[in-house]
Design goal:
The protein has 4 helices and 11 strands, in the order αββββββββαββααβ.
Length: 217
């Protein structure tokens, strides 16, 4: 058996310490999440949003990651809107790591500084093993829901500490169908490329109406 170096053993011990009790910390009641730390706040979603569950694990062996997923769906349980809330912080044995986002994405959202990025795409993406997307897809499937063929989403990220090691990330996603265009239409050589600017502006505005951030009481 190959011997592990001292640093490898220390790293393994640190990860084991993080994973000893990986139950989600945040409390969900109805369509509201209460977080007592990092950050201390309530996140209130529309009352019709259905909670699918939460999960917590060490993401790629570098970050303590906790997710909670809510959806609004049609009668056939196909998702129309999805709310993906993620609390994440790098584990202590990786002090060199920090979250980095494009400076041009930093803006005001709901009165807070957040990195905001809107995107569109097809929903048949195969998630990377162990990724946060894989865990979200598993929660959706476990409750018998399916995703629409094409979606658009806005990713909201709030960095929580000066060292940029802790973050709150929310992804608000909708089916692309009501826009009347397809993913191919919106691509650089598509027939509706010029419409994306207006579509994403409306998407971000809806996200700001749908998601409320309240001080922890």
């Amino acid at each position: 058996m190959k011997k592990l170096g001292v640093m490898a053993v220390l790293a393994m011990n640190c990860v084991v310490g993080v994973t000893q009790d990986l139950r989600p910390e945040r409390v969900v009641k109805g369509s509201t999440i209460t977080s007592h730390r990092d950050p201390a706040m309530r996140i209130e979603l529309p009352h019709q949003a259905q909670y699918l569950g939460g999960d917590r694990w060490v993401l790629y062996a570098v970050a303590d990651c906790e997710i909670h997923v809510f959806v609004e769906a049609d009668a056939e349980k196909q998702v129309r809107r999805m709310y993906w809330i993620q609390f994440e912080q790098f584990i202590p044995n990786r002090p060199e790591l920090q979250h980095n986002y494009k400076p041009e994405e930093l803006t005001k959202f709901a009165g807070m500084e957040m990195y905001v990025r809107a995107r569109f795409g097809k929903s048949d993406e195969v998630a990377k093993q162990g990724s946060d997307l894989e865990h979200v897809q598993a929660l959706v499937r476990a409750k018998g829901y399916s995703m629409p063929p094409e979606m658009m989403n806005v990713r909201l990220v709030r960095l929580l500490d000066p060292q940029r090691r802790q973050e709150l990330m929310i992804i608000y996603a909708e089916t692309l169908e009501p826009t009347g265009v397809t993913v191919d239409d919106l691509m650089p050589d598509g027939k509706a490329t010029d419409k994306w600017s207006g579509i994403q502006k409306s998407l971000i505005e809806r996200a700001e109406r749908q998601i409320r951030f309240m001080p922890e009481s």
